[in-house]
Amino acid sequence: MNTSVFSPYTVKNVTMKNKIVMSPMCMYSSHQEDGKVENWHVTHYVSRAVGQVGLVMIEATSVTPQGRISPQDLGIWDDDHIEGLSKLVSMIKEHGAKTAIQLAHAGRKAMIEGEIIAPTALPFNEKMKTPKEMTTKDIKDTVEAFRLATKRTKEAGFDIIELHGAHGYLINEFLSPLTNKREDEYGGSFENRYKFLSEIIEVVKAEWDGPLFVRVSANDYHPEGLTPSDYVQYAKMMKEQGVDLIDVSSGAVVPASINVFPGYQVGFSEKIKKNAQIATGAVGLITSGLQAEEILRNERADLIFIGRELLRNPYWPRLAAKELGVDIESPVQYNRSW
After folding, report:
1. 9-330: CATH homologous superfamily?
2. pLDDT digit string (tens) for 61-83?
3. What pLDDT is attached to residue 330?
4. What are the backbone angles phi and psi of residue 271, rounded to the nearest 5°?
5. What is d(CA 166, CA 107) in angstroms, rounded to the nearest whole number?
6. Which residues partner with 146 through β-bridges?
């Protein structure tokens, strides 16, 4: 059977063997609190490459120590991180997968010792600390941290960069009117709230000529928050700056009740793809090959990002292939089992 899921996908100079992406998921496993790759990361990511995922995306990796979600997050704020990330990239590629990294800053959702920062001094909830409102210097320093992280990403050998602009972390905090109450050039209007992300894209593109993705939360699930229609406009702006794909998630910028069901975010991906004329990735309770095939066949997204199903089963692509009647390559060491 000729499927969309298992056909190659090319973005710029990178060709994935299929359209299955391992969605970035934090492992909180850098136990020395130094942001370095440990044995767990190698086992975790390389096993998904063996399982025939087309693109393995590394979890949210912080561009500054202050920007970690937890003290155990992976980091890319120092040249000392390059060696471990490079080894990880090499081992993933050895098994035929392409590699991506999600560059991130947690903003007000950082759960670390010391001061945390955000566009506005508003805590996420009553249990979390109040961040410091960022000065213009803080903003410029953070943009520069993304630039330096990009240089390290390139040195480590990754194929694709994704900027984490979703789930209530720093970039998302600047975009949403719920979390950005600034009155300077980084707040107020729709365009001003985009300025921080725009500057990050600009410095990343100056260092990086490979594919660039951005993950967004396409719905704030709040009457005064952003909607998918707003993200159509943001996606058009990102496309003009050279972003290649929008990875479409939703929520988590403020506490909210979300009606979750299989494929509940796919409609957001479809809306952005068709109205902004940009490639998108769909994510969120996508659990079967047939479901993934429907999304791609009906042009609701260009890539399928799989999260929890790949935690449950590193070999999920093989189950999807069997469901779709497709023969896919196996590691030769496992041939006797198929």
Report:
1. Aldolase class I (3.20.20.70)
2. 999 999 999 999 999 999 999 99
3. 79
4. -65, -45
5. 11
6. none
* 105, two tokens: 């800053």
Q: What is the pLDDT of residue 245?
A: 98
- Dump pLDDT digits (tens) for 189-228: 999 999 999 999 999 999 999 999 999 999 999 999 999 9
- Count CB atoms within 10 A of the CB of residue 275: 15
Whole-number Å distance between alpha carbons of 140 and 136: 6
128-139 pLDDT per residue, tens: 999 999 999 999
Q: Quick one: tokens of 277?
A: 């004329």
Helix 190-207 to helix 136-156 angle, to the nearest 10 degrees?
A: 30
For the record, the structure tokens of 257 come out as: 């009740």
Residue 134: half-sphere exposure toward Cβ, Cα within 13 Å: 29
**In what helix (H) or strand (E) does residue 61 lie, and over which residues does it extend?**
strand 55-62
| pLDDT at residue 2 greater than cutoff 80 | no
**φ, ψ at 148 (rounded to 5°):** -65, -35
Gap between the Cα atoms of 277 and 166, Å rounded: 20
| Residue whose pair of structure tokens reads 């951005």 in the numeric block | 214
Average pLDDT over residues 291-312: 98
DSSP 285-329: S---HHHHHHHHHTTS-SEEEE-HHHHH-TTHHHHHHHHHT----
